Amino acid sequence: MSSSKGNAIFLVVFICLYISNNLYLVCSVDPTTGFTNIPLTEANFEIQRPYDVPLEERYSYENGTRRLWVYADDKPHDPNSHTQPRTEVRIQGLDYSSGVWQFEGYGFVPNGTSGATIVQIHGASHGATTIILRIYDGDMRYYSSELVDTGLYDRWFRVNLIHDVDGGKVRVFIDGVQKFETHDQGPGDLYFKCGVYAAPRNISYYMESRWRDIKIYKK
Question: What sections of the protein cross the membrane (predicted)?
Answer without folding.
Answer: none
